[in-house]
Design brief:
The protein contains six helices and six strands. The N terminus is likely disordered. With 225 residues, the chain is of the alpha/beta class.
């Protein structure tokens, strides 16, 4: 009987590994661009990327805003990015959640303030990008149970869920105080959590993919490509 058990054990592990390979999480990402004006940027000009946070129960995660900004500073034709918090602190109180401009007409009124115009010039801001969106988890299914016994502890079961990262980026030209375009990205993916003794999460990296695709598209957009 011991021989049979010893033979079954590696077989079970092999089947489990094959299952992990078959269930490797994947993500599909779509990007849409709507251009409303001509764009272009000089080497001494910068962009600031800000997350929408008008409601107390909703905000665009600062980590995602930082991710997009960081990606735009890399690779070919990098863009100068002013860190969000540095910009908001320097512009206090005009870009706090309750006072931040919601429309380009609000930006026009702000630019009439001498101190705001001076700070914008100091930073060399050519474009202001407003990021708005979130990641939602849906369609959870399955269950995992864990137990501790004389022979040790272990978990068994299977779970899955779907993640959907949906973000919009509105690009404002600070010089003309106009909205020159909108870029939208939607990344969806199925994540899995199989457990045979220990849970092994297979996570769909929807936010990471959305960040990369959105940053690349924004870079091309502001460069006028």
């Amino acid at each position: 009987m011991k021989l049979v058990r010893d033979e079954i054990k590696p077989l079970t592990v092999s089947i489990f590994l094959l299952l992990l390979a078959a269930l490797s999480s994947c993500t599909s990402t779509t990007v849409d661009e709507f251009r409303q004006g001509e764009t272009g940027i000089e080497s001494d000009q910068s962009i600031v990327i800000l997350g929408r946070r008008q409601a107390s129960d909703y905000e665009t995660r600062s980590e995602f805003v930082s991710c997009v900004g960081d990606r735009m500073t890399r690779g070919e034709n990098p863009i100068n990015i002013v860190p969000e918090q540095e910009f908001v602190d320097a512009m206090f109180p005009w870009f706090e959640p309750r006072t931040a401009p919601l429309r380009t007409s609000d930006l026009e009124r702000l630019m009439a303030e001498e101190v705001v115009a001076e700070k914008m010039a100091e930073f060399g801001i050519r474009y202001m990008v407003w990021l708005d969106g979130f990641t939602e988890t849906t369609d959870r299914s399955g269950s995992i149970s864990c137990a501790v016994g004389p022979g040790g502890a272990g978990c068994f079961g299977f779970g899955s869920w779907e993640d959907d990262a949906n973000f919009d980026a509105r690009v404002w030209d600070v010089g003309t105080q106009t909205n020159v375009g909108t870029i939208s990205t939607d990344a969806t993916g199925q994540s899995y959590l199989p457990a045979l003794i220990i849970p092994i999460p297979l996570i769909a990296r929807v936010e990471a993919n959305a960040c990369l695709r959105l940053a690349n598209q924004l870079k091309e957009f502001v460069n006028g490509s």
